[in-house]
Description:
8 helices, alpha/beta, seven-stranded parallel beta sheet, Rossmann fold, globular, binds NADP nicotinamide-adenine-dinucleotide phosphate
Amino acid sequence: MKTVLVTGAAHRLGACIATLFAQSGWRVLCHYDRSQDAAQALVGHLRAAGHAAQAVQGSLQDEAGCQALMAQVQTQTDRLDALVNNASTFIDDTGLDFNSAQALQQLRVNLLAPLLLTRQMARDLVPDGAQGCALHILDQKVYNLNPDYFSYTVSKLALERAVALQAQSLAPRLRVCGVAPGLMYLSGPQTADNFRQAASANLMRRPTDPQDVARACLFLASTASITGTVLSVDNGQHLVPLPRDIMFVVDDLLKGLSP
Ligand SMILES: NC(=O)c1ccc[n+]([C@@H]2O[C@H](COP(=O)([O-])OP(=O)(O)OC[C@H]3O[C@@H](n4cnc5c(N)ncnc54)[C@H](OP(=O)(O)O)[C@@H]3O)[C@@H](O)[C@H]2O)c1
């Protein structure tokens, strides 16, 4: 049975990815940081359905946390076939008001942690002669720049560039790919009204289905010839340029409509 570690697996996209891998016959290690109850509930639900799942806890805020998480993983398995770097922070700032502490926090969790976990996987969790796959969850924003969520975007841009670099560095032990989703879930200060409109501002006029993102992850993890590439799963959102993050554009529209 193949084993996958999914970071930030307690809720939303991470839970969806963990569930699809489990339903497809993989053993899933569901990472969480603060969401212990939700992670345990997910694992309980997967096990009750006959799947193999364990919860692993850890902060991805620094290298020690990443190492501790991988040490915990090694108590569960001596081999990882796939790693999905999904956990992230999403802090609202701009190029004019970002502060170093928050920018560093985002760079640590969104960029350094995926690189460190992937490095650790290549070093310790892919046996000689085997090949694994690491996936970085990106954002359609990396192909559709606007200045909102400035340091978040910087972190995801660097991670997008690192896909090819890591694929070159870690081959043939690891394949490294990315998945760039469009808007799937209500985030930050968004209202339900705002989300409803914003999530359909793409070529297909509907929110990105998290199941499609999970299916893309499973496809990449299962397709041995693909490395160093990124799949956009965003209903074409990256082809609809906007001057600001879609949630703010929609806010202005909604304000214009109110009496
Ligand atoms: N939401 C969207 O519509 C959207 C759109 C495009 C791209 N994406 C990308 O898709 C991925 C998932 O998005 P999402 O909205 O489902 O994520 P999310 O709910 O905002 O966060 C996922 C998890 O990240 C974990 N996390 C945050 N900081 C952490 C830290 N310091 N250490 C360890 N874990 C930490 C949290 O785990 P705990 O709760 O256990 O603490 C959290 O549940 C992200 O990479 C995001 O950038 C999302």
